[in-house]
Design a protein that fits this description.
35% of the residues lie in helices and 11% in strands. It is of the alpha+beta class. The relative contact order is 0.14.
Amino acid sequence: MNPDGFDQWKNDLTQKIKQKRQAKPTKVAGTEGRIKAATARQTDSRGQQVRQKRQAALENPFAPPPGHRPTARQVSLGADPNQGRAVNYIPPKEKGGKKIWDGRRNGLDFSAGLEATVPHRDQGCYHRKKNCTGDAEAIDHLEPFSQRQAGLARYLICDGRNHFEACLKEEVQKLYDAPTLVWSCTSCNSSKGGVKGLYENIPQFKEPCPGEECTVPAGGEEV
């Protein structure tokens, strides 16, 4: 290749490289434009969904939102997607100030000073089952509480916003502190085989409170 031909080839190659470099920003700008357009469409779609939900809530405050599916906890509280907005809370008190039991064993403890009233601690564990240590480590229900609590009275209560069917904490505590108590070791207590956690007295949602027309008395109404 003669010098003139080489210089021409070099100039042509340089021009091609410059053209490619100049073309890249155009492609990037196009990609950015498409991304911005797609993002704008998504934002508009989300905004429209929010506006639809707000409008639906204004038209019927107790209607389920579009596409709503209640959770397992909401279903246990009586949520019905065809009847009303799902309620996913348990009221701690009713409008008269009485405490509501949430239906769980974890929220219960023996009353202070109860240990002194349970006799025969010096005789050790009452049950004497397999692997019994013989130690009187804690007081225990002779009849499993998970069975005894099935007979608790239930009340229709109002917390100011919604109506529930539930048990009153004071009555549950009296049953929990029942006289059928014995001393037990940890091994025997854990091997009694009582149903734990699967209680039937979880508060059940009934209906929204109608406000001034509410007829549920303070303290609840036994059902």
